[in-house]
Design brief:
Its EC number is 3.5.1.2. About 45% of the residues lie in helices and about 10% in strands. It is of the alpha+beta class and about 300 residues long. Strands 3-2-9-8-7 form a 5-stranded antiparallel β-sheet, with helices on both faces. It binds glutamine.
Length: about 300
């Protein structure tokens, strides 16, 4: 195995320069103006050392990567009771699909598709003001990253509040089935702000350490729960691209439409990559290629 800085430099010089960068998400107007030329990659190793290349210090909208932190909070708050409201099966459908909800009486397939994540946020919110939920979420993320300089981008949150009609449809449908405790506007207000958290790859890779079992990482979640969150990231973290990601990369990962991906090599590394252009499943195109190359060069895989 070559050393990590050499591998990262090689990834930046090949994948990072690729001309075919995918499409930047434009259904949230505020994200449409992000420059697709950005590329950042950061790796924190088990010994605590961190190695980064490209735009690893530039903050981006973490979007659905936030669903991992929200799930960790929800499991801490509700434990296994959460699973009466949301399943643990891959959906095989787009992140914002409503199709399965009717068959499954308003119970979403998993916590990482939008419907499932809205239920998770709703469960933690449980009658509190969105401000309190967001304060708790930010405290969790800042503690995980050991970095108080992590914020919510209000413009991105507002932009999605104005255009998030599909998420409103999902929330109202679930409320109709009795699977949303709070008024949809309240839950979605919290959910849109959660998605609008901004972090750099440097910060996100550090925030992911609690999922890799690093000896010196903040102990935010029990080891048993860490394994389960990783299992869900592996089976559901990339929506209808989850099987493909598992096949190509072989590590649990969670993507967001901002073009970020958090990837965990258990016991070895926490990895964050950012390239805003997306593939057809709404996952970062070059981000996937970058972690595929990283996994191949390092031999990191949960499959032996
Ligand atoms: N905020 C986005 C949405 O709900 C998150 C989706 C994503 O990152 N895949 O549509």
């Amino acid at each position: 195995m070559t050393d990590i800085p050499t591998i990262l430099r090689a990834i930046l010089d090949t994948v990072g320069q690729s001309a075919d960068r995918g499409q930047v998400a434009d259904y949230i107007p505020e994200l449409a103006s992000v420059d697709p030329a950005h590329f950042g990659l950061s790796v924190v190793l088990a010994d605590g050392s961190q190695h980064s290349v490209g735009d690893a210090a530039v903050p981006f909208s973490i979007q659905s990567v936030s669903k991992v932190f929200a799930l960790a909070l929800a499991l801490g708050r509700l434990g296994d009771r959460l699973w009466t409201r949301v399943g643990r099966e891959p959906s095989g459908l787009a992140f914002n699909s409503i199709l399965q909800l009717e068959h499954e009486k308003g119970k979403p397939r998993n916590p990482f598709i939008n419907a499932g994540a809205i239920v998770v946020t709703d469960a933690v919110l449980a009658g509190h003001a969105p401000r309190e939920y967001l304060g708790e979420l930010l405290r969790f993320i800042r503690a995980a990253a050991e970095d108080d300089d992590i914020h919510i981008n209000e413009d991105v949150a507002r932009s999605e509040t104005e255009t998030g009609h599909r998420n409103f449809a999902l929330a109202h449908f679930m409320r109709g089935h009795g699977n949303l405790q709070n008024p949809p506007e309240l839950t979605l207000g919290a959910y849109f702000h959660q998605c609008a958290v901004e972090m750099s790859c440097d910060q996100l890779a550090r925030a992911g350490r609690f999922l890799m079992g690093a000896p010196d990482a903040p102990r935010l979640v029990s080891p048993d729960r860490v394994r389960r969150i990783n299992a869900l990231m592996m089976s559901c973290g990339h929506y209808d691209g989850s099987g493909e990601f598992a096949y190509r990369v072989g590590l649990p990962g969670k993507s967001g439409v901002g073009g970020g991906i958090l990837v965990i090599a258990p016991g070895r590394a926490s990895i964050a990559v950012w390239s805003p252009g997306l593939n057809l499943q709404g996952n970062s195109k070059l981000g996937t290629e970058a972690v595929e190359m990283l996994a191949r060069r390092t031999g990191w895989s949960v499959f032996g």
